[in-house]
Design a protein that fits this description.
mainly alpha; 5 helices; 0% strand; globular
Amino acid sequence: MLRVYFLQNGHALSGPMAEEMLHDSEAMRRFAGIELGDGRIPDETTILDFRLPLERYGLTEAIFAEVTLPEHRR
């Protein structure tokens, strides 16, 4: 789900649009580690339920800071 969250943030996708893109884009599914036929594509409610606590507790910036390569940090 964290990779789905990265995709959602990086592409400014709403929950419904993130779900749709995971169904439509092989590249996004590959990044998220999801196969089209395995029934693991999260629905918009699952995506929202994952995103809200991260944003509520201000964890988004901390998470992105941890995964950003040092040469890209400011």
